[in-house]
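re: that complex we talked abt at group meeting.

here r the seqs, copy pasted straight from the sheet so there may be weird spacing, ignore it
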Amino acid sequence: MRQLCKGNVAVVKGAILAGCRAYYGYPITPASEIAEAAALYLPQVGGTFLQAESEVAAINMVYGAAAAGVRIMSASSGPGLSLMQEGISYLAGAELPGVIVDVVRGGPGLGNIAPEQSDYFAMVKGGGHGNYHNIVLAPASVQEMAELTGLAFELADKYRNPAIVLTDGFVGQMMEPLDLEYREATPPEKPWAVRGTAETRKNLVASIFLQPDELEGHQRNMEAKYYQAQQEEPRHELYETDGTEVLLVGYGIVSRVLRSTVEEARREGLRLGLFRPVTLWPFPSKALAEAAAGVEKVLVVELSNGQMVEDVRLALNGKVPVEFYGRTGGNVPSVEEINAELTSLASRQ
Amino acid sequence: MRQLCKGNVAVVKGAILAGCRAYYGYPITPASEIAEAAALYLPQVGGTFLQAESEVAAINMVYGAAAAGVRIMSASSGPGLSLMQEGISYLAGAELPGVIVDVVRGGPGLGNIAPEQSDYFAMVKGGGHGNYHNIVLAPASVQEMAELTGLAFELADKYRNPAIVLTDGFVGQMMEPLDLEYREATPPEKPWAVRGTAETRKNLVASIFLQPDELEGHQRNMEAKYYQAQQEEPRHELYETDGTEVLLVGYGIVSRVLRSTVEEARREGLRLGLFRPVTLWPFPSKALAEAAAGVEKVLVVELSNGQMVEDVRLALNGKVPVEFYGRTGGNVPSVEEINAELTSLASRQ
Amino acid sequence: MRQLCKGNVAVVKGAILAGCRAYYGYPITPASEIAEAAALYLPQVGGTFLQAESEVAAINMVYGAAAAGVRIMSASSGPGLSLMQEGISYLAGAELPGVIVDVVRGGPGLGNIAPEQSDYFAMVKGGGHGNYHNIVLAPASVQEMAELTGLAFELADKYRNPAIVLTDGFVGQMMEPLDLEYREATPPEKPWAVRGTAETRKNLVASIFLQPDELEGHQRNMEAKYYQAQQEEPRHELYETDGTEVLLVGYGIVSRVLRSTVEEARREGLRLGLFRPVTLWPFPSKALAEAAAGVEKVLVVELSNGQMVEDVRLALNGKVPVEFYGRTGGNVPSVEEINAELTSLASRQ
Amino acid sequence: MRQLCKGNVAVVKGAILAGCRAYYGYPITPASEIAEAAALYLPQVGGTFLQAESEVAAINMVYGAAAAGVRIMSASSGPGLSLMQEGISYLAGAELPGVIVDVVRGGPGLGNIAPEQSDYFAMVKGGGHGNYHNIVLAPASVQEMAELTGLAFELADKYRNPAIVLTDGFVGQMMEPLDLEYREATPPEKPWAVRGTAETRKNLVASIFLQPDELEGHQRNMEAKYYQAQQEEPRHELYETDGTEVLLVGYGIVSRVLRSTVEEARREGLRLGLFRPVTLWPFPSKALAEAAAGVEKVLVVELSNGQMVEDVRLALNGKVPVEFYGRTGGNVPSVEEINAELTSLASRQ
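got the structure back, here u go
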């Protein structure tokens, strides 16, 4: 079924098709349409929508529902995600699947409600305490808002780990055609879940491991599944990477500007190419290293002060010069601006 | 005055000598002695100690007191720090100085109360939302618990930014001699503070910048001060780095094991050296690159699954191979274990 | 269907038969079985059970669900009810129906978990701020736990007002036969509810009335419905009131001891009688005045320091001497103890 | 010293003269000036002002500071007081002194910010769970706002019990001359307090009494002190009660209207008199019975739907007819209105 749909609403449609049946959250611009759509659609499929007292309450309800084996979602923007960091760490530590959407706005602090990509570090690197990683997916279109949300549920269940859909106010608020076909979601069996039934009475969902060796063993197990994810799950998109001299790297809304930049450049005979990470964790380091092999230079563009650029540098490990161009506060670079930056970089050599 | 003192208590002594006059927090093992000592000593100097309803409440009280120009502290461990991530982002966004101590315990989630270094990412890279950095200091002795806490107050005020003392249960709980001499602290003038007086009525402490250009300008200003900090503030310690073949890198409690490893190795004629970052942000990248120039290999040791190692790799940018060895859950590697790892690395080449 | 059932569980069975489809609460002894039973049974009828972050959160979820027109319940014991007082006042002010069960334990403060009747004032007289009354029902058996809970839903909807089931740990924990026959509950239409649909978009559920005349008018309307309730809803039970010399008055568990006292006394030719208020608000003042007409004396017995006795005195207005006997802390007077008190009273004249 | 002062500010001045050295609260209209004045003046005498996260947090900080033996205050209006009911019950149960000011606004629920007396029940009768009474004082002038707040601290300490200053937006917001003379406050020794010192280490402040006999014994002790308070503390004011035919009864702002009514009536030869309760708990029942002896009728006037009238009826116990006249929502009856009511009552006989 083809329909015109807003990005934030597509998230909910994708979630429900993926079998999501509960949403706990607290509204915040520019993520509030996700709560609205969840409140509208979830009861129609027998699901539960609940506006919690706070983001702290919401993420702990996510923990509870995830422990019961339900496909479960929350969404917020920067400040709300920060409040959820403890709960996300608990989800990871208890190996619970849950999908959380971050529609990034300007920060730090109160900032503004315009789009940024400044939560990359908080979602991909750090955030909560302890050794763990979030799975992080970065949609670049309304269609992907639905599809990657669906994928987030699958990966969350496959790895029993929180999965983040990291997007921004542009993608969240834009209207685009959305193609969805109905299919019966078949979430996996979750024999570990605590369902309040006799047969699940023996199950224990917890993140406490009092003895050092016990906790270290738990973390080794987590590391093993993170290693598996790094082998199997990195996803990226390439565009015009034949004979590329300068490889542009950007995700989400930025990748759309970069694609236009590449198109225009190729029309003029300039050998630009685009590498778009679709998964931010696991980061598609190997594919990026391959795509960057032989290029003169890499330019990373972000709506931030430079965050993903560290993962790009780690992936290339000094083999190719990596430059950075960032805009913040809700400003998005135009094609002209990227071109000017490329010219400036060329002249600096 | 020389005294035998516990690391967590030394934090409070250092803070009070630095002019800290308020503490808001919520107790958690293994950081609770900081709250206890603050409750004992702060009233003796006319200061305020308050146990808040939660870590969320505590960090917002820190925000309030910092806005009033008071030198102010909080402390917690992993889960508590996660709950403070929103507030820390607000401190950074409003350019407020405040010192927060993280006595890291095992994670993620509830984990255990044994020492780890697994909050490196959460404190140094990510954590709260938006573009900002915490200043992060990593003491390795009781003496440094006091001194680096004092330095944290100075840097927090100099840069009007939150400063984290990142330590762990080992350093927090150990007893060592502490030399402190009394000096009158002279916190800087803070003409921007809101003190409830007529002359400060015009002041506004906020992190809201509604217009994109306004927020971007604010972030550019923040970037400028972060750049200054990166030039002026990196601190590190070198040990036996002449003719080093293998450079060990570790911070905090780990650096003490590595120092013993180097001592023992040098006695046997093996050319090991030690680089200890004292500031984790700004990371002493330049000094590390210099120290690593010419070495065959770098081995990073952490009580984590590998977090600081990324900053080491970014600093060396492929020029020297960087290996990692980590223990978690409260386990700390012994000298023998490091030696075994070094032997294993040598044989793998 | 006849079954052996615990009082707290009977509450939930009665609620579900009455059409209750949502429960928000936070567990506390001796009310926790209500939460447990709600968690077990509500999902079986397509309803929602949610353990909230706190009693404050729970009562505000009750407010939200009541505003949406759902038959909704919460339960707690003393401390939890105190935390709900603001929310209950909001329910009353916004004229929202909701049923809250108070399984009273020993107080004030933390007290203990043994039964008392010491929340009478907090539920019947005061509690939240502003001019309003709770409808309060006092079951004395497992059967009534179910039936009066059902009645509470009916009265809550009829008067659009919170209704309290005021019981105690004895009645909550006791096992007795319970007769329930299934019937389809038919909650009334609620055209005022806000359901997120187009036709209810114009509805407003609020308790704010900024202008004095507006708020006074609102309160006059509330007074009118309270007057109606006082005419139509008082319920009581009489036992052996022919030719009574001493009328015993007690509610809930106490009434069962008093009934035994009366039975025993009548066997010995003593003319005792029993008046049991079933509704505590509206208090059956008129019926009590009639029952007490001509008696020599009234003895009120409570598991408290004397609370309902004030309503008895107000009802009798000096026409008959009213004495009081109370036990607290979880102690319940025996028949012998009541007899001793009666003897003592007789000798004092 | 004579000064023109607002009622809410006079509360703080009275408190500080009484030795109050800490204030924890959360602002709400029409009580916010109390927080403002506390924030201004307390630091000047070495005291602590703290705006807590919520009223729930504030009252628990009051509990903590009271346990440490500090004279401590909070203030709020209806909704905030409702949120404090659990904490107030804990103060009473643990026998802790603390002063809480309720500047009553229109209710129930959100209501409005105009003055009412509709929290009488919540403060005087019920409120929190369990068997306890608040000491309740009702100032009728700016001077009394200071003096009765001072008295509240004395009674709170004398009886180790929470004391409420029950006032309203009229008295809180009015400006009147205030005479205060400085005197050194001498709060009593509190050997039971927990001060974090060696000699108070054995002290325990708690409200938990697990065994029924233990809790009942505790409540008997509380009853004994309540009995003492009922003998020693009732306070009232009489005006023109010689040969009174109709006795007006009102407290707070209402008493000022009633006094004018009496003055005017006496000028015209009508024998009206005024009885003003100054303490609402303990209620001056004996004095009222004496003052009402021989009058034809009592008219109680309140800014409520009729709450104190119950205590008047209990005091008179049917000996004199008691009528009620109330206004709500922020409306205050005028002298003319009272006269009209008196005429109407006369004609009804």
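couple things i noticed - The interface with chain D takes residues 39-40, 46, 48, 50-54, 56-57, 60-61, 64, 196 of chain B (CB under 8 Å). The radius of gyration of chain B is 20 Å.
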